[in-house]
Amino acid sequence: MLLNCGQPLPLLAHTDVPPRVIENFILTGYRFPNYSLRECLLSAFRPTNETGNFWTHFLPVFVFLYYFVEVFGWERAPDSGAPFFYPLWNYFIGVFCLLMASSMAHLLNSMSLVVREVCFFVDYGTISAYTVGSSLAYYYYIHPRAGIVEPGGPRGSPDFSLFFDSLYIPSACVVAIICVLSCCNTRQRWREHRYVIRTLVFLLPFLVSSSPVFYRLLLCRSPCAAGTPGYFYRHCLWLLVSALFNISKLPERLAPGRFDIWGHSHQWFHCCTFLSILDELHMIKAEVRAILLDPDLGLPPAGPARLPGPTVASTYGVMLFLQTTIVSIIAGFSWRANRIYGPLRDQLEKQHPERNPKAHLS
Ligand SMILES: [Zn+2]
Predict the structure, then answer these.
(1) Which of its termini does the chain have fewer beta carbons within 10 Å around, N or C?
(2) What are 101-152's pLDDT values in tens digits?
(3) Where are the domains of the chain?
(4) Yes or no: domain 51-361 corresponds to CATH 1.10.287
(5) Is 235 annotated as ligand-binding?
């Protein structure tokens, strides 16, 4: 909402906003924590301390889309709706929801303290759903028996077939749910160590979901598609750098107030997480291409390995189950947040009567 004279509301210093809203080492550029939806949307085009956070996850949606759709034009690629691509579409859903939820969470979080909490619960939920989307793609395109290596596992390598065949996807789902629960909890307790907990908690799904790649690269040393090792190591590197930004709060820690609008750690964190996603996409595409180009490496039952092919239930069904569980968890935490922060809304309106909608009418 704009002031009557058409000017946007002035931005606030960290001393003028509720303690809940304050980010470490960010001193200015805060929006009033009771913006209308329209004010929030318009704030994407004015320099606040959330503007960079919004754009660094919103623009990547289009970059990701550009590289993603290329797959369907490849030689020997089946129709985009074919079962072969179900896992890839689930990966797309995971990434798309993550980037959109994250950018919208940063844009809309100044509607109220309760909305702010809900925005970040949704953010954590979509990160977890993304890890399961990745796992589905890994399972069908990078699994040790996704047609690349000989049936029964390569000779001389440890046999983890029980884990990869039966436990891999359920483990990814359980870990994702633990992540949502833990991260949502850091907004209501364990506040002091929240950045460390959130970073560590997301290390676990990374390790579980990446296990087929680690296995292929480090243990069985089965042939990977050209480029896969490079893309994977770069994917890991970007994740590591993003975690360092998230925990260290550099560069704003060194010069509080200097990076309030542009260049603070969360923006670098967003950039690095997107670069890691992009390398992951390139890796998955390289493996998809290898399967498409060599008919002998086709997904079973066409190929020699025993891995069952993707079905609606084993891909979209898993994703739907996970999303439903995550939505229920978020609803529970949101209800609790409303009880904690709801009363503060009335308090804020009393302190700032000019922000009360009724005051605008009079
Ligand atoms: Zn963010």
Answers:
(1) C
(2) 999 999 999 898 889 999 989 999 999 999 999 999 999 888 766 544 444 4
(3) 51-361
(4) no
(5) no
158 in Cβ contact with 211 (< 8 Å): no
Token pair for residue 149?
């290596």
Nearest-angstrom CA–CA distance, 339 and 318: 32
Q: 87 alpha carbon to ligand 1 midpoint, in Å?
A: 26
DSSP string, 187-200: TTS-GGGHHHHHHH
Instruction: Please list, in sequence order, all residues whose beta carbon lies within 8 angstroms of the beta carbon of residue 270, skipping any fewer than 6 positions away.
Output: 53, 56, 57, 102
pLDDT digits (tens, 9 = 90+) for 308-322: 789 999 999 999 999
Report the separation in Å between the CA atom of 280 and the middle of ligand 1, taken as the mean of its atom positions. Answer: 19
Give, as residue ranges, everything with CB less than 5 Å from ion ligand 1: 102
**Residue 266 in marked binding region:** yes
Report CA(272)–ligand 1 centroid distance (Å).
11
- The answer to whether the beta carbons of residues 289 and 72 sit under 8 Å apart is no
User: What are the phi and psi torsion angles at 71 (to 5°)?
Assistant: -55, -40
Question: Whose CA is closest to 130, among 86, 98, 170?
Answer: 98
What residue type is 17 in one-letter code?
Answer: V
For residue 350, the tally of other CB atoms under 10 A from its CB is 9
Cα–Cα distance measured from residue 238 to residue 89, given in angstroms and rounded to the nearest whole number: 23
